[in-house]
Design goal:
This protein has 17 helices and 33 strands. By secondary structure, it is α+β, with helices and mostly antiparallel strands. Among the domains are: 56 residues, Winged helix-like DNA-binding domain superfamily/Winged helix DNA-binding domain (Arc Repressor Mutant, subunit A, Orthogonal Bundle), CATH 1.10.10.10; 68 residues, Nucleic acid-binding proteins (OB fold (Dihydrolipoamide Acetyltransferase, E2P), Beta Barrel); 222 residues, no CATH class; 53 residues, no CATH class; 92 residues, Beta Barrel (OB fold (Dihydrolipoamide Acetyltransferase, E2P)).
């Protein structure tokens, strides 16, 4: 490097200039620097030369109007949010160029209140500051988005003009496309607005392929909700290294002699848990719940941990799983496979004859699963009297646990689960409500017992706990429920203690099935949403005072945190591994001090996953029904609004709207408290829970939206928006059922 020039008399030093640039409350350009140091005339010319020298020496970077310290940031600048971590927005400079010598700094945005009001992609004018632990910034103003990505399908209208049809059923209007970006009609694409007006056109930025091809529906959900679905090379490399860590049988409790079994869905992609029980000779049972010891492999501070923390949980779609952990761990090394030695966290329980857990202890163990059994197969063995002794003992122990559950009287609501079956080509073969078996209840009650034991074991050591919290219904929701029940002549006394059993008795005492469905829907709407948190607020639905998720660490980060807390509290640390693998498998310092941020983050990730999974099922259902438009189905009303009511097909699911405009010529009044639409002349009414036959009028696989109309009479439903005229192949998902009836196909040109 050439010798550094000395500043002329009167000029500031390099250090003075750097200090001013870094601390200036406004963007610091040549004019601001000259004003700050009182430079005039010839000194300004000398300043220009000095700034050029500093840039060549790598001390500063930027333009004439706004310099900043090389590798640093202006005091005030525009940032772009790239991620949300533990409820905090993480951003990078919006104008950082790829040719810059250094990678853009990751900046933590400090917002007011709990959780982030910003989302991925937002642009904010911010005041930045560098701390000992990195950059942070304070948002000043949220700016208009430059590149808000839209997901949709390319359509061509009658005049040959391209449009972007949204795949989100909440977005009603299509957008004109100014730049197809090589996309063809009928393809699923990502696009961004061109301009800021509401009527701005869009340009295609990425072509994703056929919207009705196998695996497209889950891809739509992944992109729409911003679900991380790709692991970095560093994460995958670390996973390969930790997967090779040896299991030391002499450092773990050896439970390989026990016939421990994993009872799971037939299509399970991983196996977190396995169970075993035997009579204790005193009328009770000794039970074991073996859970994959993920904390042994995934340690705080590593690449895998950072990615798992960001994802929060695995996301399950009919055609794929977006795992929390790399596949070598989630589907192999951590998964409790039959006949193979596996690391486990073992929860030992002593259960009395009444199903009460009298004692517990936790160990790190090595297990060899005796058998992985599908729910249906386990149930069949029991029902046919062909069950092996280890299954019979499990069922006997479960009956005791079920007795204790009955005494506890948790909330009992019928919540059917839809199951989509696909063939090897990804086409739908069946959609049905998953049957609820005793085998499901067996596993569920063993898991609940282990989760309670984990929470209480940590409480006994005054250790940090990530609780699974389900709070008592709010007074506001209870008042709404009280008003609704009054329309049936039923009372809900607000002064009494509200318990799950109160709701159970209310539902059980109703003989009429239609009315029972109405009340059950109302009770469900009154419930709060469960979440994760470090404060114990109890679990109302399960009627439990202390509850933590312990049994699924392969797919839930909350469970992994509970495992780490148990490692710390009960001194279960394993010998330090060799190489660059983090040493501790207990809690990190930041989690030990405050579990609030990560609890909020994984609660948000859970809600994101649930919405993505539900929307994907809706799209599969719409695809399945797309060739049955015009057929009449038995349905049940699930919601009533002044603009119409929603109904779901019994035994299949999939909510569809019946617009009030299609109910006939008379005027319909809406009773918000009773959730009822009533005809002013005929007195015909429609209420939540009511069973009626409806004709399917529209099924849109791209959005998952359904529309129904009355079987007899009423108005006809017209397709919403502009007519579709897509050039694409037929519906590949519905198998032989054909293509969606509400989409016109014109055939697609071959490239």
């Amino acid at each position: 490097m050439a010798p550094t020039k000395r500043p002329a008399p009167g000029l500031p030093t390099r250090k003075q200039i750097l200090d001013f640039i870094q601390n200036s409350p406004v963007p610091a350009g040549k004019r601001e620097i000259a004003r700050e140091f009182g430079l005039k005339g010839q000194e300004k010319i000398q300043l220009k030369a000095l700034l050029k020298d500093m840039a060549e020496e790598g001390l500063i970077d930027g333009k004439r109007t706004a310099f900043h310290k090389m590798g640093g940031l202006p005091k005030v600048t525009v940032l772009r949010v790239i991620d949300i971590e533990e409820g905090e927005a993480i951003a990078v400079p919006d104008t950082w160029q790829p040719e810059d010598a250094t990678p853009p700094p990751r900046i933590r945005l400090v917002e007011k209140g709990r959780g982030s009001a910003l989302k991925k992609g937002d642009r904010v004018l911010s005041r930045t500051e560098e701390t000992g632990t990195g950059w942070r910034a304070f948002p000043m103003k949220k700016l208009a988005l430059r590149s808000e990505q839209l997901l949709g399908v390319v359509e061509i209208d009658g005049g040959g003009k391209p449009w972007l049809a949204p795949v989100d059923k909440r977005i009603r209007n299509s957008s004109p496309i100014s730049d197809l970006g090589g996309a063809e009609p009928g393809e699923l694409v990502l696009a961004e607005p061109v301009g800021r007006s509401a009527r701005a056109s869009v340009k295609v930025t990425e072509v994703l392929g056929e919207p009705l091809a196998p695996k497209a529906f889950s891809l739509i959900a992944i992109h729409k909700h911003g679900i991380p679905n790709l692991f970095t090379e560093e994460t995958l490399e670390e996973a390969q290294r930790v997967a090779k860590m040896p299991l030391s049988a002499d450092k773990r409790e050896d439970l390989r002699h026990l016939p421990i079994v994993a009872i799971d869905p037939s299509d399970a992609r991983d196996h977190d848990d396995a169970i075993w029980a035997e009579p204790d000779g005193e009328g009770g049972f000794n039970a074991l719940i073996a859970i994959a010891d993920v904390s042994f492999y995934v340690r705080p501070g590593g690449d895998i941990d950072r990615e798992a923390r960001r994802r929060g949980n695995s996301v399950y779609f009919p055609d794929r799983v977006v795992p929390m952990l790399p596949e070598v761990l989630s589907a192999d090394v951590c998964s409790l496979r039959s006949g193979e030695d596996r690391a486990a966290m073992a929860c030992h329980l002593r259960i009395d004859g009444e199903g009460r857990v009298k004692a517990w202890r936790f160990t790190r163990a090595i297990v060899r699963i005796h058998e992985v059994i599908a729910y249906e197969d386990a149930q069949a063995r029991i029902d046919e009297g062909k069950a092996e002794p280890f299954l019979q003992d499990l069922w006997s122990c479960w009956k005791a646990l079920a007795h204790a559950r009955h005494q506890r009287d948790p909330l009992e609501l019928e919540l059917p689960e839809r199951r989509v079956k696909l063939d090897e080509k990804g086409r739908i073969t069946e959609i049905a409500i998953r049957e609820r078996l005793d085998a499901h209840r067996v596993v569920e009650d063993f898991m609940i017992a282990a989760n309670v034991a984990a929470a209480k074991a940590l409480e006994a050591k005054v250790a940090p706990v990530v609780y699974r919290v389900h709070e008592t219904p709010s007074r506001e929701k209870l008042v709404a429920l009280k008003d609704y029940l009054a329309t049936f002549g039923k009372k809900l006394a607000m002064g009494q203690v509200i318990t799950p059993g109160l709701f159970n008795r209310m539902i059980k005492d109703i003989a009429d099935e239609s009315e029972k469905a109405l009340i059950m829907e109302a009770v469900l709407r009154s419930q709060t949403q469960a979440y994760y948190g470090p404060r114990n607020e109890g679990h109302f639905g399960l009627a439990l005072g202390s509850y933590a998720h312990f049994t699924s660490p392969i797919r839930r980060y909350a469970d992994l945190l509970v495992h780490r807390a148990l490692v710390d509290a009960y001194h279960l640390e394993q010998p330090r591994p060799q190489g660059d693998i983090p040493a501790t498998s207990g809690l990190s310092d930041r989690d030990r001090e405050d579990l609030g941020k990560v609890s909020e983050a994984i609660s948000q990730a859970e809600r994101r996953a649930m919405e993505a999974e539900r929307e994907t099922i809706d799209r599969y259902v719409a695809a399945w029904l797309s060739s049955r438009v015009g057929e009449v189905f038995d349905t049940r009303i699930t919601g009533v609004q002044k603009f119409g009511f929603f109904a779901t097909i019994i035994g299949l699911g999939g909510d569809g709207l019946v617009p009030v405009s299609t109910l006939g010529d008379e005027r319909f009044g809406y009773d918000e408290k009773a959730q009822v639409l009533s005809g002013e002349q005929s007195g015909t009414s429609y209420a939540v829970g009511q069973i009626l036959r409806l004709r399917l009028a529209e099924a849109n696989p791209l959005t998952g939206a359904l529309k129904f109309e009355l079987e007899q009479g009423g108005g006809r439903i017209e397709p919403r928006g502009r007519p579709m005229a897509l050039k694409k192949r037929g519906n590949h998902l519905a198998g032989k059922r054909g293509r969606p009836a509400n989409i016109r196909h014109q055939g697609r040109k071959k490239k």
